[in-house]
From TrEMBL:
Annotated keywords: Coiled coil, Lipid biosynthesis, Lipid metabolism, Nucleotidyltransferase, Phospholipid biosynthesis, Phospholipid metabolism, Transferase
Biased amino acid composition, Low complexity: 304-324, 336-347
Species of provenance: Mustela putorius furo (European domestic ferret)
The protein's name: choline-phosphate cytidylyltransferase
Bias (Polar residues) ranges: 1-10
Domain Cytidyltransferase-like residue range list: 65-193
Entries under Pfam families matching the protein: CTP_transf_like (PF01467)
Annotated transmembrane regions: none
Catalytic activity field: phosphocholine + CTP + H(+) = CDP-choline + diphosphate
Gene3D superfamilies: HUPs (3.40.50.620)
Region ranges (Disordered): 1-20, 294-354
Coiled coil: 224-251
Sequence similarity: Belongs to the cytidylyltransferase family.
Amino acid sequence: MVGHQESTTEGDAGDSGAPTFWRKTLTAPAPFADETSCQCQAPHEKLTIAQARLGTPVDRPVRVYADGIFDLFHSGHARALMQAKTLFPNSYLLVGVCSDDLTHKFKGFTVMNEAERYEALRHCRYVDEVIRDAPWTLTPEFLEKHKIDFVAHDDIPYSSAGSDDVYKHIKEAGMFVPTQRTEGISTSDIITRIVRDYDVYARRNLQRGYTAKELNVSFINEKKYRFQNQVDKMKEKVKNVEERSKEFVNRVEEKSHDLIQKWEEKSREFIGNFLELFGPDGAWKQMFQERSSRMLQALSPKQSPVSSPTRSRSPSRSPSPTFSWLPNKTSPPSSPKAASASISSMSEGDEDEK
């Protein structure tokens, strides 16, 4: 696609002697046709579509005309004008806008008045010139006056003003170049949305400060709309509270989950430490066994001698028989070996007495 070119306007001649034709459309609105003369200075010879597509001299742009109502100017309008502007490498786009009288007569009432529609077109980047009060049906005189080479419009027959197609004679003359409509967007669609949701937009404008008189709303409907606005505000508050409550619950759940994880980790750590200390092979059991063995060693008596010495006899008393074969009561044998030694010593004593 060829990019948008700057519109032409008459200026001083350059080195070639040909006048310059450039206007910065991105910094100024497009001019009205009745406020400027035709800016095509070169001889205006009739062009074919093939010649126009090959390109023309700078001082001889292809003059393309597109017309319409352009009520509630939207992207569909802009795309149609973009297509008209980029049909040829060197083009100058004139846009005709019908007046309120013609529009109301042949099509119906508009939302925007003619002055608003003119201004909307002047500030579209693809438009080089705006023709106010454009005719409903194009005449040879109008085409000649504005030196129009081609007319751009969608190819659907446009029946109006007693004609099956108001562009029929343009098509027969080989001056018609079709453009494509943008599906899903039109002025009628926008108006349908507003009518369908009238209550919503009426309540919206009441909230924004418009009066019931300005909106042509009855007293009862005004009270109804204001009540509905209050109900909507309460619903919004409840919704906000619910959302905040959900956020709070989610935060609590996250924290609870973290606490449970920490508790599980601490529990596992505690159980591991407990088993390490008190388990079958734990340190506590080893320590208890060591202490028990120490206590048993401390409480167990030392082994007594095999035989006890006989008492010395007192010279002042009569001798009394000694019974060396009796076991020592104070130190009982601590083991079987000691007991056998004691018995053997007793038998030896008996043999001495014999």
